[in-house]
């Protein structure tokens, strides 16, 4: 008997019914299970219920210390250039039209497209002339198909297909029409937040971090780090690859708060630390521990340059005092809470420190952010030995990310779309926690790797 998906039923009884069937190899019920979980937005239930039980077993310290980091997650598609993207998007759209209404599609789409778009495009296999010809043909053909789809005689259901919507978006992003001629848009600033990178996973985005580039998502992971307790994941989320760690932190802390798992200390790298994040963390009772990125200014590239830190602010008179002893104009307060101080051009031109201070033709301008005092305190703190001692714990989260990759294959997405990506992350996090909790109950403890010979320890005993 062939499998037929059943209509959604109330959660979680219908999922419990599927339990034994899900364990069977290659069970079609797994797809039904994933669809129902994402439809009911129940991806986090298993992960959160398990955390509750582990907390009841005393494996999670309340208001303890946690550490956070992220990992690039690759989507299950190959990297493609603009020409390959256009051809593949058109090919996927035609296949969807054939499945939706074969009669209309075969009567509308020219039979010559079978040879032109029947196979996936690999630009490196084509000659330069063939690539140039295909660039003109695919733009024209895609635009022609979109115009046919907008005609009144076209079945409305075809215009609403997701693959057709992707075709519209890609053609808008990649092509322009000038006097009836369809050509590729000239290369310009890249908008990673909206630009579709592949028609096979339209929600995946191209991203770059340092020298690393990828198409996919980003995994945000937070795990516990308390002595005498196992290292367990308290939050795991698949987010857009173009969402910075600095933006992601607020969502991480909000989810931890909803689970009543907020830490008293949260260790993270500089990508998560900013003035607003430090302030919001303090409001939640969290000590955010991380190095602030070095301020970027022209003066830092000048030998003995006079940076903003060397200016003093007189809030009583609302003015700034420069290292040369000159006072600025009254500060101008911006809508974001920052205050800008300007020094007169004539004063700066006559100042003997100008070569170390001003990079432009006018007088020096400095801007004090709304979180100036928090940032000053954080920069001073990160130079202390106490900060350096606790910040060394941050490296341990790298082991967590490595284990998620090596043991659970988290670096590659199993499914298409962000919804099932979230499901993969949360289910993987639950499996990870089960594994570590079982090892802890069996008496296994995390390895402590010591640097050096350890002679000081041996002589002390």
Give a brief description.
This protein is α+β, with helices and mostly antiparallel strands. The protein has helices at 13-22, 29-39, 45-56, 82-100, 102-108, 113-117, 128-149, 156-159, 162-174, 245-258, 275-283, 345-350, 354-357, 372-381, 385-391, 396-408, 418-441, 455-460; strands spanning 65-74, 175-178, 181-184, 205-209, 212-224, 233-240, 265-267, 287-289, 312-314, 319-321, 332-333, 339-342, 365-368.
CATH topology of the largest domain: Nucleotidyltransferase, domain 5
Tell me the name of the CATH class of the largest domain.
Answer: Alpha Beta
| Rounded Rg | 29 Å
Helix/strand-derived category reads alpha+beta
Number of strands: 13
Count of separate structural domains? 4
How would you describe this structure to a colleague?
- This protein folds into 4 domains: 7-42, no CATH class; 43-75 and 211-292 and 389-441, Nucleotidyltransferase, domain 5, CATH 3.30.420.10; 82-184, no CATH class; 298-370, no CATH class.
- Helix content is 43%, strand content 14%.
- By secondary structure, it is of the alpha+beta class.
- The chain has helices at residues 13-22, 29-39, 45-56, 82-100, 102-108, 113-117, 128-149, 156-159, 162-174, 245-258, 275-283, 345-350, 354-357, 372-381, 385-391, 396-408, 418-441, 455-460; strands at residues 65-74, 175-178, 181-184, 205-209, 212-224, 233-240, 265-267, 287-289, 312-314, 319-321, 332-333, 339-342, 365-368.
Summarize this structure as a short list of keywords or feature phrases.
alpha+beta, 6-stranded mixed beta sheet, flat, 3-stranded antiparallel beta sheet, 13 strands, 43% helix, 4 domains
């Amino acid at each position: 008997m062939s499998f037929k998906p059943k209509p959604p039923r109330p959660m979680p009884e219908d999922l419990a019914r599927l339990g034994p069937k899900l364990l069977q190899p290659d069970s079609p019920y797994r797809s039904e299970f994933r669809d129902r979980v994402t439809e009911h937005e129940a991806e986090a239930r298993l992960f959160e219920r398990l955390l509750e039980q582990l907390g009841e077993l005393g494996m999670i310290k309340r208001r303890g210390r946690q550490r956070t980091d992220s990992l690039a997650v690759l989507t299950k598609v190959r990297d493609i250039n603009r020409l390959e993207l256009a051809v593949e998007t058109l090919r996927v759209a035609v296949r969807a039209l054939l499945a939706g209404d074969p009669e209309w599609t075969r009567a509308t789409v020219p039979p010559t497209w079978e040879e032109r778009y029947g196979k996936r495009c690999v630009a490196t296999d084509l000659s330069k002339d063939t690539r140039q010809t295909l660039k003109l043909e695919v733009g024209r053909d895609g635009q022609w198909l979109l115009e046919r789809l907008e005609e009144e005689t076209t079945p409305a259901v075809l215009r609403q297909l997701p693959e057709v919507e992707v075709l519209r978006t890609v053609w808008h992003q990649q092509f322009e029409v000038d006097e009836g001629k369809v050509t590729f848009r000239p290369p310009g600033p890249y908008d990673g937040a909206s630009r579709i990178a592949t028609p096979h996973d339209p929600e995946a985005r191209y991203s770059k971090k340092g020298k690393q580039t990828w198409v996919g998502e980003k995994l945000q992971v937070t795990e516990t780090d308390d002595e005498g307790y196992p290292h367990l994941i308290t939050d795991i989320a698949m987010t857009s690859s173009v969402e910075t760690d600095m933006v992601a932190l607020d969502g991480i802390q909000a989810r931890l708060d909803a689970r009543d798992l907020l830490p008293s200390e949260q260790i993270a790298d500089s990508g998560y630390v900013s003035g607003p994040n430090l302030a919001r963390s303090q409001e939640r009772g969290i000590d955010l521990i991380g190095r602030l990125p070095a301020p970027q200014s022209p003066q830092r590239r000048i030998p003995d340059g006079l940076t903003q830190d060397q200016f003093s602010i007189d809030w009583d008179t609302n003015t700034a005092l420069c290292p040369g002893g000159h006072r600025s104009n009254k500060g101008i307060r911006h809508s974001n809470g920052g205050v800008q101080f300007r020094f007169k051009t004539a004063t700066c031109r006559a100042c003997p420190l100008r070569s170390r201070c001003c990079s432009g033709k006018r007088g020096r301008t400095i801007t004090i952010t709304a979180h100036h005092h928090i940032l000053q305190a954080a920069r001073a703190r990160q130079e202390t030995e106490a900060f350096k001692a606790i910040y060394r714990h941050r490296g341990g989260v790298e082991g967590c990310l490595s284990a998620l990759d090596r043991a659970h294959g988290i670096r590659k997405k199993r499914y298409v779309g962000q919804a099932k990506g979230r499901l993969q992350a949360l289910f993987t996090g639950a499996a990870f926690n089960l594994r570590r909790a079982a090892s802890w109950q069996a008496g296994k403890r995390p390895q402590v790797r010591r640097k050096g010979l350890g002679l000081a320890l041996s002589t002390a005993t």
